[in-house]
Amino acid sequence: MPSAQGDDAPPSFWQTVGSVLAAFFGVQSSRARKRDFTRGQPWHYVVMGLVVTIVFVAVLAGLVRLVLTVAGV
After folding, report:
1. How far apart are CA 48 and CA 53, in angstroms?
2. Cβ atoms within 10 A of the Cβ of 20, count?
3. Who has the most CB within 10 Å: 7, 9, 18, 54?
4. Could you tell me which Pfam families the record lists for this protein (predicted)?
């Protein structure tokens, strides 16, 4: 199935987000990985990876604070 962007177009923002999230959880498809390595810009993935990591850590910290507050600690 041909993509709407063409074969040489760089991955869209949402494709980049999806690739980073999939790689973050270890479920990246070989097709997406191949697309990322051939058409993507490395710094897009580095920046998005840092953003996803910061959000993940912030959510975990928030959950810990919520649990400690509910537990009365």
Report:
1. 8
2. 22
3. 18
4. DUF2970
- If we measure between CA atoms, which residue out of 45, 3, 1 comes closest to residue 24? 45
Contact 32, 18 (CB under 8 A): yes
pLDDT (tens, 9 = 90+) of the chain, 73 residues, equals: 455 556 778 999 999 999 999 999 999 999 999 999 999 899 999 999 999 999 999 999 999 999 999 998 8
Structure tokens at 3: 């993509």
Helix, coil or strand: residue 62: helix
Angle CA 33–47–38, to nearest 5:
30
Distance, in Å, from the CA atom of 14 to the CA atom of 28, rounded to the nearest integer, reads: 14
Query: N- to C-terminal Cα distance for the chain?
Result: 55
Closest CA to 68 of 31, 60, 17, 54: 60
